[in-house]
Specification:
This is 2,4-diaminobutyrate decarboxylase. By secondary structure, the protein is mainly α. The chain is built from three helices and no strands. It has a domain at 9-52. The chain is flat.
Amino acid sequence: MTKNLQLSAEEMRQLGYQAVDLIVDHMNHLKSKPVSETIDSNIFRDKLIETIPENGSNPKELLH
């Protein structure tokens, strides 16, 4: 993956539609989800001190 986002207009549209679908699904199911989740403090701490990546991730993989 390169440091620059290299997507066609159509790929950007598709990713945008996928993101909106995820948001709508999340909002529609909020009432059936718990208010909060229990998170292992060690995992949480590890994520907080994790180094920020030098390169981006494939945006298509992030939405799955």
